[in-house]
Amino acid sequence: MRVSSRIAATFVLLAGAATLALAACGTSAGPATDVKLALDWIPNTNHTGIYVAQQQGYYRQHGINVALMPYGSTAPEALVASGQVQFAVSFQEYVTINRAAGQPLVAVAAIIAHNTSGMAVLANSGITRPAQLQGKRFASAGDPAEDAVIATMLAHDGVAHPSYQPIQVQDASHTSLVSKAADFVWIYNGVEGVQAKDEGVNLTTFNPTDYGVPDFYSPVLITSQQEITQHPDVVRAMVQATAQGYSYAAQHPHESADLLLQHAGGTLFANPQQAYDSQAFQSAHYSDKLACWGQQSGATWANFGHFLYGAGVLVDANNKPLTSEPDYTAMFTNQFLASCS
């Protein structure tokens, strides 16, 4: 899911609308400010807190009306950078890459506290460690960080000269393994991992952070530096209402999954049970051991950014490799989160 979201999104929303301008509950003291939030992929449990905030009236209570933009042919980062939307769901690597190229994106909250993705293989493949991925076929849809992540994992596990075969696929998920189109794929354990289990597909997964890759945030809620400068109250309202949504989802997984299923206009899940199982996993990981949802660590941004820089992933607006590291502290902020108790 994480890589194919930047290549294509060929799905039909049952609601049939190009823009999901969802009706909000609750009331506010005055007229609400209209804002747009672009999703990164088909609605799934990475997004549950947003739908909860919408349907529970948290956005309206904070004085904003939020229209959700389904993923399309334009990347959500580009929509934010161009001012077509004020907010989007993105990933730490995309924020870092865009900032390096001169696009002033800022992550205002971590949707999940730590990385929950991993390289997956079929459990009966005979592959029991990353070193055995050497020379194997990888189901890729072009994530710019994937080569650095895979090479690091293989090298950390003892491979002197890491190499693999990237296979471009439409759906970079466990289905690529089942169809024998590829030998391994990068998935979210809480989404595709749950789907695979529900479908009776047994997987073995390798967490990149166990094999030399620094922890990273995936996904994050982003806005632009311009939005922060010109409309800080709107950013604060968006972040704090969304935090309420994810906090509710963390405490009420089943009810939150129901809200996602009822109001998303179509989801990534084949049946409700997949959504419930996925939500149970995600709800336990949104905040993990943090005092509250959304907090981001400067060390996580600096360490993963340094990793991308060292791997040559970061380039400037002219597609030239950076000759010095960018300011990672400018890529995120916790200033709009309510104080944690």
The CATH topology of the largest domain, please? D-Maltodextrin-Binding Protein, domain 2
By secondary-structure content and strand pairing, the structural class works out as alpha/beta
Using the coordinates above, name the CATH class of the largest domain.
Alpha Beta
Stretches where pLDDT is under 50 for at least 5 consecutive residues are 1-28
Number of domains: 2
Number of strands: 10
Task: Give the CATH H-level superfamily of the largest domain.
Answer: Periplasmic binding protein-like II
Radius of gyration: 19 Å
Shape: globular
Query: Which architecture name of the largest domain does CATH use?
Result: 3-Layer(aba) Sandwich
| Multimeric organization | single chain
Q: What separation lies between the terminal Cα atoms?
A: 34 Å
Q: Helix segment count?
A: 12
Order of SSEs: EHHEHEHEEEHEHEHEEHHHHH
Q: Mean pLDDT, rounded to whole units?
A: 91
Strand content: 5-15%
Query: Strands across the major sheet, in which order?
Result: 2-1-3-10-4
Largest pleated sheet: 5 strands, mixed
Note down, in words, how this protein is organized:
The chain has 341 residues and is an alpha/beta fold. It has two domains: 4-114 and 217-331, Periplasmic binding protein-like II (D-Maltodextrin-Binding Protein, domain 2); 117-210, D-Maltodextrin-Binding Protein, domain 2, CATH 3.40.190. Helix content is 33%, strand content 15%. The chain has twelve helices and ten strands. It has helices spanning 48-55, 58-61, 76-81, 92-100, 146-156, 174-178, 192-198, 225-230, 232-251, 253-263, 272-283, 298-310, and strands spanning 33-38, 64-69, 87-90, 105-110, 117-122, 137-140, 165-168, 184-188, 203-206, 220-224. The strands form two sheets. The protein has a five-stranded mixed sheet, sandwiched between helices.
